[in-house]
Amino acid sequence: MKRSLWKYLLMAALFAAPLASYGQDSATAEEEAAVEIAEAAEAAELGEATEGEGGDGGGASDINSGDTAWMIVATALVLFMTLPGLALFYGGLVRSKNVLSVLVQCFAICGIMSLLWVIYGYALAAGGDGCNFMGWDSSFLFLNHLTVEGASGTIPESVFVTFQMTFAIITPALIVGAFAERMKFKAILLFTTIWFTLSYCPIWHMAWGGFLFGDLPGLPDVLDFAGGTVVHVNAGIAGLVACIMVGKRRGFPKTLIMPHNVPMVLIGASMLWVGWFGFNAGSELAADGVAGMAMLVTQIATATAAVTWMFVEWRSTGTPTAVGIATGAVAGLVAITPASGVAGPMGAILIGFASGLVCYFSATTMKRKFGYDDSLDVFGVHGVGGVVGAVLTGVVAYKSFGGSGAAGLEEEVGMISQVMAQIASVVITVIWSGVVSFVSLKVIDSVVGLRADDQIEEQGLDSNEFGETAYN
Amino acid sequence: MKRSLWKYLLMAALFAAPLASYGQDSATAEEEAAVEIAEAAEAAELGEATEGEGGDGGGASDINSGDTAWMIVATALVLFMTLPGLALFYGGLVRSKNVLSVLVQCFAICGIMSLLWVIYGYALAAGGDGCNFMGWDSSFLFLNHLTVEGASGTIPESVFVTFQMTFAIITPALIVGAFAERMKFKAILLFTTIWFTLSYCPIWHMAWGGFLFGDLPGLPDVLDFAGGTVVHVNAGIAGLVACIMVGKRRGFPKTLIMPHNVPMVLIGASMLWVGWFGFNAGSELAADGVAGMAMLVTQIATATAAVTWMFVEWRSTGTPTAVGIATGAVAGLVAITPASGVAGPMGAILIGFASGLVCYFSATTMKRKFGYDDSLDVFGVHGVGGVVGAVLTGVVAYKSFGGSGAAGLEEEVGMISQVMAQIASVVITVIWSGVVSFVSLKVIDSVVGLRADDQIEEQGLDSNEFGETAYN
Amino acid sequence: MKRSLWKYLLMAALFAAPLASYGQDSATAEEEAAVEIAEAAEAAELGEATEGEGGDGGGASDINSGDTAWMIVATALVLFMTLPGLALFYGGLVRSKNVLSVLVQCFAICGIMSLLWVIYGYALAAGGDGCNFMGWDSSFLFLNHLTVEGASGTIPESVFVTFQMTFAIITPALIVGAFAERMKFKAILLFTTIWFTLSYCPIWHMAWGGFLFGDLPGLPDVLDFAGGTVVHVNAGIAGLVACIMVGKRRGFPKTLIMPHNVPMVLIGASMLWVGWFGFNAGSELAADGVAGMAMLVTQIATATAAVTWMFVEWRSTGTPTAVGIATGAVAGLVAITPASGVAGPMGAILIGFASGLVCYFSATTMKRKFGYDDSLDVFGVHGVGGVVGAVLTGVVAYKSFGGSGAAGLEEEVGMISQVMAQIASVVITVIWSGVVSFVSLKVIDSVVGLRADDQIEEQGLDSNEFGETAYN
Amino acid sequence: MKKLEAIIKPFKLEEVKEALGEIGIEGMTVSEVKGFGRQKGHTEIYRGSEYTVDFLPKIKIEVVVADDQSGAAVEAIAKAAKTGKIGDGKVFVIPVEESIRIRTDEKGDEAL
Amino acid sequence: MKKLEAIIKPFKLEEVKEALGEIGIEGMTVSEVKGFGRQKGHTEIYRGSEYTVDFLPKIKIEVVVADDQSGAAVEAIAKAAKTGKIGDGKVFVIPVEESIRIRTDEKGDEAL
Amino acid sequence: MKKLEAIIKPFKLEEVKEALGEIGIEGMTVSEVKGFGRQKGHTEIYRGSEYTVDFLPKIKIEVVVADDQSGAAVEAIAKAAKTGKIGDGKVFVIPVEESIRIRTDEKGDEAL
Ligand SMILES: Nc1ncnc2c1ncn2[C@@H]1O[C@H](COP(=O)(O)OP(=O)(O)O)[C@@H](O)[C@H]1O
Ligand SMILES: Nc1ncnc2c1ncn2[C@@H]1O[C@H](COP(=O)(O)OP(=O)(O)O)[C@@H](O)[C@H]1O
Ligand SMILES: Nc1ncnc2c1ncn2[C@@H]1O[C@H](COP(=O)(O)OP(=O)(O)O)[C@@H](O)[C@H]1O
Q1: Measured between beta carbons, which residues in chain B are less than 8 angstroms from residue D48?
Q2: Of chain A's two ends, which shows fewer C-beta atoms within 10 Å, N or C?
Q3: Torsion angle (degrees, nearest 10) of CA B307, B310, B315, B320
Q4: In terms of DSSP bridges, do strands E2-8 and E49-52 run parallel, antiparallel, or are they unpaired?
Q5: Measured between CA atoms, how close is A314 to chain F, in angstroms?
Q6: Among residues A133, A186, A183, which one has the least CA distance to residue A436?
Q7: Pocket of ligand 3 (CB under 6 A)
Q8: Are C190 and C176 in contact (CB under 8 A)?
């Protein structure tokens, strides 16, 4: 009974509504041709709203081959972050009896989010017919409006859609680290589907659609170049809520739960690092000086955070560790994300140093103190690092703090207001994502249950939920 | 006796003929300068024949930096598919005693095919002086005609040559999965060398040289954007013939032969996925809207096939598996390949769904039923997926099936004829590759033997043929 | 006492001097704005000096999106070579008790060199106010001069700086292979810091700054397109000196020290191969015909060297090996590096063949004969391969040897003089790097000691110096 | 002296070690083994076929004790390792004629 | 009771298990070991030098049987594991004083 | 016959093997085990916390010898494996009732 119920829910969520509207659309496909072009243009604007460069959009003649070349590659890089980057980073951190569960979760999320983005996600996020909180555009369903010629700024809209699809993949995938080694696969698929729909798409719309975060009463536009709020704070909070609701792993924290394959963790971290160039420099949507500077500050902040974590750990425990330096690097990558389009080298050092220090504290002392089992430190690194980055973006954007000047108007806006805007965006994201996570997990728990059986957890998810063992 | 014979054969094949003509060429190097430019232009046209965009080719002034940037990266991505992508995908699927054999086979094929492509492969494939079945251009031997300025369309010809070299590497490398864990290394090198020469180059010429597949009596031009016939059907059939002729692994199918390292399989599959953007979107040879759409549909079809495989397996065996979802993704990548330049999002969903379903059936039920030991499912995924993709390309290219319109003339051609053309190209490829594989394996068997000794197979190829064990 | 001393030294080296000048700079930040633009232009010229294409540099209007797209990606590719490429290549070659030590060393070097390059490295290397041996430009400290608009040739200067940063990372990281499994982490950090400052930056300046190597009395300009002297000879000699001074691993050569994970070695080698396209073709700093040809010859030389090594090993020991073919590929990559911008396909085959052969000899017979423990063959492959490549560059640049003609003036310069210039640059690098390495290691030895305790070496560096074991 | 060989479920190792520690036994040698018995392994899926993996991962503890400790030790192990479910494992008692501590050349019960 | 320790070639495990099953023995414990003996290992190549790896991977089967089954079990193992080529391995028979089934506290032959 | 079970430090394996070879013993079976005892393991750091890993990697050598060789073999092992530092390990001597060489069906001392 329980089993069949979730199936219907899932299928309904996935297909029913959008299919309905698809039928409708195709009936009037011809008449919409003209509208589509206009909407492509609109999407282009949306995509660039936070970068402050209006494009007149639309015609194929505006497509720049250099920008397109870069953005195709940036898309590949961001996909590479999830598969295999994040999958390996997480896979190495769990015990060998659960490594496949994490890998399959990443793969399945990649597949499902890609489809959801195509079917209705792009409409919910980028559609201009919604409100300040959620977008809509029925012609975007199934990407029915896309043409080979349609442009988004200086790149084909197909590239913009795919680039953003890779963000829609990695964000839910990040969350699985929080409840690794114990949550039911079914429940994970349901949760990420609902959370994607009700938290990822709306926050995308608020931040990058140019809606709520560009329209906060009495505050300047929020700066979130590559996803501090949309991606990291959003996923980090979902992870925190989920890991508390799912509960601790058996034995945690008494039993030592060590990473089963540390080299795998470091391969994964390295791929995240390299792929993040696509994430941050790609968020410029062009191959220009801002993209170049975004790459440079990404590298600097990451290096600083990794080195900071290493020395802090060395000092406080007596040795640096491999997992530590890799986690430090990820903390730096997370924190520089919202600032990458506006910071300069000095700002990157500041953000890298702050995030290395603060995330070290949050993933060690703080987690120990509160006792939640955020297994792979989704909240400790992405949540906390995301907050550090989002807030400091309001500081390092200023030329006096080495800001690259790319933020545009910022000199007219006082730093206090800018920081207030940043904080407001964080608070909104925390509440929004927290509530969506809490409610959806409650519902899923009552329908299919959140946790794998004790016996299954003991023996490992791999051999039970996935019919395989990793190493034979 | 046997041993020395093969050496002479190999050396003759590799060096004698082309060296002879090289000597000749260099004697007249000066006079040919002018001719070379013309031929570069010709090559450019060849490269684009199936994309339907005439270029007037030639002069360095036509080189577009954006297109060049993209194509250099696309080349790197396709190389990345083989090394380490395919090597890991295959390496993880075999037993630990044979993992090095697979890795060395991939490396060696990469090295040898690169050289053969330089020495005579490009001449056989892209040369315009041959017939409808096989190309020739003696100035292309040793790439003697290449200059820094020479262009192929809007990119340097050197980039086009290297991009195509990476296809000439991965195609023979794909085949080794069919006879993994038992075939002699020598025999593999001989087989892939002969097959490259007599099957890969000719089919390339027919399909992408604009010859036979653009000249089928009474049928429209075959659509094969990125290599459904040239790469996947071609390799898949070679794999089927070879795995039957080499015979089953000892113990197959009675003994359970499990993948020794499933995470390695998933890393490899992920790299194939990411690298495939270079394969498909790169086949446009430019950074434009068609490339962007090719990337998008590649992502959609792959996601659909992976999810389809997962749910089908879940339903039929009770659990999804990691190897399953990864194989599903590869099936989707294979099937969308020929269609990637012409399909739209809906067509990609269709192709992804069909390939996930059909390849699941061919790699499980069908293989079990017929009892051949296609060890890593080269035929089951590349052969069958390639056929599914090649045929459906004739459907999804149509706007009524969501086609992007990039196929150009297709509205004038009826879908039935187009599908017939697609089927004809598949049939020709199947027969051609099948016959070449069969005859060359017969010859190699009589000269050096195809199979490793029983004792060696039992102990593992690694410690016997390669003097190493993988894990120490 | 010893312990605190090194800390002060390190801190002084890292921060004191540059911080001082930073304070100074920022005081006069405003007035320097104009100067910065000029200097960006100058840097641009420096960056291109060896490629023989003057650019008038400077204004943002010169930024080409295609070139920028390619160079951002090339930067990512070169970073990818170190993390995870080199880390895996080296990590797989050591024993399982030391794999984390190698990985952390690579990560830490990546972090620290990134910061040093930002703080003062770029000033020492690319600054125009120094002498023939060492650069200087106080406005470059902390990259204080960088702007979003500043260009270096046709790309943003930020991209040029980051691209070069990745070279400054990989070069010291290469060295760690020579003294793997026994040198103290502290000593490694100190050594690479000093060596970077006193050997890497100066040789960069001599070769690519257009100074000493463009100003050798009576000799033509040295050709070093992508770093034969700067990177490979430089690191190779440092490795040789260090491995001798640190001493052999316990048990070497009596005990068999086998690679603990050969597939990891091959993944790493594959990533080096793919990433090297960024290294070599990226060194053109543009997406054009020279970059394309550089990619092609890189692929050809690597393939040739890998195949050469395989056949030589096969012949001399009876089997090819996986580690062998991978090492052969790296030898080819190393050797083609200085020639990649000037060689043609035939030259690439020559260099690939020579390096495969010579490096096989140096990593086997020669190392055995002299008895030093160059553990992962840094000298045997990078040092020797670098010399082979640097010298042969003076040959293959000539059109009669298939040179692509990109070297420009070479027809006016006799081959003998060009080869003499190449040899001179090698000799200078060998002496310079050798002396810096020797002296700095002597100093470090007396301050913190070079070698881990016997007990620690026996149990493995991982569990002692890094508080973790790799596999749990 | 006796050597006790206990085959137990992997996650019980900690508890067994503690139980032995309580009766004063600190030295032991542990290895990973595969157990075949009444308890059946999990099902693996490969290419759509299901296979039963018939072994289960188990832990073997070897501990040599003085004759008079043997009974207590067996009991401690059995108590700590028990879950009551199939597959809990066995303890075997094997005679030992001599023990030597390599470091000191101590012999017999001294060496344990 | 006796404990039989058989060192066999890895690929013979399946057959030995079947042979024991035929005489009613289902419980056993298996581990991976390295064998040194007359049979020599393979040659490894590293950096152009050849090294002989002197151990060979072997499987150790431990099975405790009632005294009266011991002969039949030894025979079954020896027959199933035989290839006639060097390196086939050994069976050792070791006395066992007591066996306990942890789950039920059964003792002696009952516990097997 | 006796079975000697030696638990030694991993890096001593080579020396022990040589020592046994010198008194004519070539056959033996070796496995990797985890040792618990007085010697304590290293400290691992994870997320800023230190944990003591209480086991140490050890090597177990099993060698069956004729009764009259037993003394010499124990001595050879103990001498070769000794470093004098804590954790050197133990040798246990266990009676063996029968040995069979699978290849030839030889029994007793012949089979060793
Ligand atoms: N006769 C035997 N000899 C050696 N080991 C045995 C024997 N019988 C069982 N074992 C070991 O004990 C484990 C548990 O036995 P099993 O029959 O599954 O359950 P139970 O312990 O509840 O009787 C097996 O997995 C195997 O390792
Ligand atoms: N004296 C011994 N004690 C313990 N194990 C032995 C002994 N002799 C041989 N073995 C084990 O038996 C295996 C086979 O022995 P070997 O001498 O190679 O061939 P065979 O079994 O044909 O005599 C060895 O690899 C080793 O594991
Ligand atoms: N009572 C015992 N039974 C079985 N093995 C033991 C016993 N005591 C010690 N060992 C083994 O011997 C190893 C060394 O013992 P330990 O007490 O650390 O030092 P020492 O050998 O110097 O006394 C341990 O790691 C363990 O493997």
Answers
A1: 313, 316-317, 360, 363-365, 368
A2: N
A3: -150
A4: unpaired
A5: 10
A6: A133
A7: D 27-29, 62-64, 101, 103, 112; F 7, 35-39, 56, 58, 86-90
A8: no
Nearest residue to C356 via CA among C396, C379, C391, C327: C327
Instruction: Enumerate the residues of chain F whose CB falls inside 8 A of the CB of residue D5.
Output: none
Start-to-end C-alpha separation, chain A: 36
**Chains linked to D by 3 or more Cβ pairs within 8 Å:** A, B, E, F
Residue-wise pLDDT tens for chain A (472 aa)?
Answer: 444 444 444 444 444 444 344 434 443 333 333 333 334 334 444 433 333 333 333 344 589 999 999 999 999 999 999 999 999 999 999 999 999 999 999 999 999 999 999 999 999 999 999 999 999 999 999 999 999 999 999 999 999 999 999 999 999 999 999 999 999 999 999 999 999 999 999 999 999 998 999 999 999 999 999 999 999 999 999 999 999 999 999 989 888 899 999 999 999 999 999 999 999 999 999 999 999 999 999 999 999 999 999 999 999 999 999 999 999 999 999 999 999 999 999 999 999 999 999 999 999 999 999 999 999 999 999 999 999 999 999 999 998 888 877 666 556 788 999 999 999 999 999 999 999 999 999 999 999 999 999 989 988 999 999 999 999 8
SS3 (DSSP) at C347: helix
Per-residue pLDDT at F39: 87
Backbone φ and ψ of D42, nearest 5°: -85, 175
The DSSP annotation for A151-209 comes to: EETTEEHHHHHHHHHHHHHHHHHHHTTTTTTTB-HHHHHHHHHHHIIIIIHHHHHHHTS
Residue C322 near residue B100, CB atoms below 8 Å: yes
DSSP C221: P
Rounded to an integer, what is the distance from CA A149 to the centroid of its chain? 29
D45 to B259, B314, D23: CA distances (angstroms) = 11, 10, 45
Averages of pLDDT over each 10 residues, chain B, 472 residues = 45 41 39 37 38 37 92 98 98 98 98 98 96 96 95 97 98 98 98 98 96 94 96 98 97 89 98 98 97 98 98 96 98 98 97 98 94 96 98 94 69 87 98 98 98 93 95 92
Under 8 Å between Cβ of C163 and C244: no
Pairwise CA distance, residues B297 & B341, whole Å: 9
Owner of token pair 């491995």: C243
ipTM given for this complex: 0.91
Q: Tell me how far the alpha carbon of residue D27 lies from the centroid of ligand 3, in angstroms.
A: 5
Closest-CA distance, A155 to chain C, in angstroms, reads: 12
Q: Is the peptide bond before A259 cis (omega within 30 degrees of 0)?
A: no
Cβ-contact A233, A390 below 8 angstroms: yes
Pair B420, B55: CB distance under 8 Å? no
**What string of DSSP letters covers chain E?**
-EEEEEEE-GGGHHHHHHHHHHTT---EEEEEEEEESSS---EEEETTEEEE---EEEEEEEEEE-GGGHHHHHHHHHHHH--SSTT--EEEEEE--EEEETTT--BGGGG-
Question: At F36, which helix (H) or strand (E)?
Answer: strand F28-36
Chain B residues close to E45, C-beta within 8 Å: 467-468
Segment 29-88 of chain F within 8 Å of chain A by CB: 43-51, 53
Question: If we measure between CA atoms, which residue out of E56, E57, E65, E60 comes closest to residue E111?
Answer: E65
Alpha-carbon A82 to chain mean position: 10
Cβ atoms of residues C432 and C199 within 8 Å? yes
| Tokens coding B58 | 């030639």
Q: B378 by DSSP, 3-state: which?
A: helix
